[in-house]
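Record filed below.
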Amino acid sequence: MFRTANSTGTQHTVEIESNGTNNALFVNHRGASGNIAVLQSNNANVARIDKTGKGFFNGGTQAFGADLAEAFDVTGTTDEYEPGDVLVIATDADRTVERSSAAYSTLVAGVYATKPGVLLAEESIDSDLAGMVPMGVVGVIPTKVCDQNGVIRRGDLLVTSSISGHAMKADPDKVKMGQVIGKALEEFTGKGSGKIRVLVNVK
């Protein structure tokens, strides 16, 4: 047991430092039941990791990213894509996305995330997610936009454009269910294309 007896002490009770390439802390629970870790504050459980690796947190979790993303396979190779690309469901492969290329596409699925706060994946914890990109599906995501349908104002609905991987301002009279990427949080008044933050929520 490690314990700091002095209630005014400011040093760490336990400190682990590794300068190598190995694990700084390795825990292997080989029993039939029980948790891998239990954390308490004032003798009350506030967090634990059960034997399956599932985490439980009384106070919730706070991630310093901007969106919720999921790892997806892509058409082609990942080096052909970059953060901000508007992505649509590929029609020639299961669970695969590709850059948008047509206006008002109902296949729109999300945006290549710049800094996801949470990244979901149908993979094991040891997977390096090679060949996949983080597609943001909910949250604030820097998104490629263009002036194809005019100036973009804050709050404008955005849809796919005919420019690959870019969104444009939507015409409310043309919008159908499943075409809206989200709402603009910044203005785009320039010529050609650029990137603005978008509250992504595909509808």
Notes: The chain is about 0% helix and 40% strand.
